[in-house]
Structure prediction request, 243 residues.
Amino acid sequence: MLLPSLGNAYPVGIGGSHQWTGGEIDDVAKEGCLCHAAEPSNSVMIILDDVPYTWTAGDSYEMRMEIIGGPESSNGGFSARVSQGELSGDGQDVDGDTTARTHQNPNSRIFIITWTAPESGSGAVNFWITGNAVNGNNAPDGDMWNQLQFSLTESVNEEKRGTKTLIAGSGTPEAPEETSGTIDISTLGAGFRAHWLGLLGFGAVIAVIIFCGFMLRYGFSTSYKGRSNLLRLRYKVNRRGDQ
Prediction:
């Protein structure tokens, strides 16, 4: 009974090989969050700050990752892998593998990832990062993801060249799918309940106005007969022209 829900979303993180209803993923960081969407979305931006141009053996590099775009929500996650060295920082490792890391808190799209470089002579190091932007409905419908892949070479004579920012995706919103002419009332500026409460309030005002009109027209003429007769008398006198 738990298998369908596990196949929809993994709010506590995911990485490495994974089986889902659509097949098998060898590595989520490399292949993407296929259980959320079949293809990456260019409307999701992955911004990775403080990325070193080159690395020095044994040094640690703290990088800030932010996921922008996709569904209008603060929920997100990531799955990262590095060919050499160790990953730490926000999130957790994947089954004790320090070369792979994933999120723990799905209610965020900002993460700090620390990479510790391997020993000297290891050559180029490859990075794979998949960022997921979800809408929080506990289902894959409407979720989007994108990938960032890059390589870093070892410093020559331990020369440090500073850091750079890497970006994947354009952040351009994608048009929503057609929905057979239906309109979500929440897109009109008010929630469903607020909409009907407004209509009830408007109807109540109209009802009060109508009630007051009937009271003025018929209520006083029966309650104050003397005044009503006086008005009739004046009307007759004015018609005769005696006054």
